[in-house]
Amino acid sequence: MADRRQVLRFGAVAAAAPALGGALASPALAHEEPGGRKPGTTLVVGHRGASGYRPEHTLASYELAARMGADYMEPDLVSTKDGVLVCRHEPEIGGTTNVASHPEFADRKRTVVLDGVSVTGWWTQDFTLAELKTLRAVERIPGTRQHNTLFDGRFEVPTFQELLDLRKRLNKELGRDIGVFPETKHPTFFRNLGLELETPLVKILRRNGLDRRGAKVFIQSFEAKNLRTLADQYRVEVPLVFLSSASGTPFNDTRTYADYLTPAGLKELSEYVDGLGPDKSQIIPRNADGTLAAPTSLVEDAHRAGLKVIPYTFRAENTFLPTELKVGTDPNAYGKAIDEQITFLRTGIDGLFTDQTDIGVLARSLA
């Protein structure tokens, strides 16, 4: 059985989440949940902010997610050359910034082995924060999200501290406590570079009074060893969430994700983590024709081990939806995303990561 203190502290954070507030197309959605669900009991996490509407990991994206009613804003954290944590999906920034249009950085392009895979591009560890601040964010998947390209070149690469400053301002303006859900991105990779992520992350949280029981913070990672370090060596007080992929193994780990998610593996995880962030296909797989299959036992198994379950990633475009929920033939058009999220919410999950926060808020009210 999971450590009682861990289960209680995760539960306290979820229970403390207030009714949603902020600006929506229909303001009533921020305060009413007609499906009868108690406000805040199922978390809506703004995945990379409101990345369905603004380029991901920008202050504009995070702010929009908060205003749409997200309980948490989710940044991926990587390090600069001078050890500053910044919000980027990956340390390679060729696809998420306009670095390629800066001739002064042309010689920074190089091939790096990232978690065993050779990747060519520009890397945050080769840039100081001052240099990164001369760049601007661009849409990562412009073919799918053409609307977001309207904002290319408009927004800086934010630091984690700048996100926390935004959170503080929005908390005051919106009158509610908005959480943060940071992911340590490739922690072993950065540690091997002498730029480990744990120390600056914990220092920033503590400096901002956020490493305490009841703070609206979760720390997540795809590396179980990283989470164990945070629990055992850093003694963090906030809940920890183990992310899992539908296949493969965590980097530099002999155990597969599938092994971690067996009943025995979940019991072991519960010794030092408080929740799971699985690929949504590990909750409801897809059949060979792309339709949704029957749910697995993962939610029930995780709850039995005392772990909460918050799967990723829910997106509105047809290309990401199961076959029966696509609408029309345009892969970039919106399908029945609300229906998908309602289906998953009814499995008993404790929250979800979504690129379109407003859809997550509405689906939760209807589930």
- How much helical structure, as a percent, in the residues? 25-40%
Question: How many distinct helices?
Answer: 12
SSE-based structural type: alpha/beta
Shape: globular
Strand coverage percent: 5-15%
Q: Main beta sheet, described?
A: 4 strands, parallel
Poorly predicted runs: 1-37
Number of DSSP strands?
A: 13
Give the N-terminus to C-terminus distance in angstroms.
Answer: 29 Å
Q: Tell me, rounded to a whole number, the average pLDDT.
A: 91
Q: What's the gyration radius in Å? A: 20 Å
Descriptive account of the structure:
The protein starts with a helix and ends with a helix. It has 12 helices and 13 strands. The protein is globular, with a radius of gyration of 20 Å. The strands form 4 sheets. The chain has a 4-stranded parallel β-sheet, covered by helices on one side. A 4-stranded parallel β-sheet has the order 9-10-11-12, with helices on one face. The protein has helices at residues 4-16, 59-68, 129-132, 160-174, 187-192, 198-207, 224-232, 257-260, 263-269, 298-304, 337-345, 357-366, and strands at 43-47, 72-74, 76-79, 85-87, 110-114, 117-121, 179-180, 183-184, 219-221, 240-244, 275-278, 308-309, 351-354. It has 367 residues and is an alpha/beta fold.
SSE blueprint and pairings:
Blueprint: H1 4-16, E1 43-47, H2 59-68, E2 72-74, E3 76-79, E4 85-87, E5 110-114, E6 117-121, H3 129-132, H4 160-174, E7 179-180, E8 183-184, H5 187-192, H6 198-207, E9 219-221, H7 224-232, E10 240-244, H8 257-260, H9 263-269, E11 275-278, H10 298-304, E12 308-309, H11 337-345, E13 351-354, H12 357-366
Helix pairs in contact: 2-4, 11-12
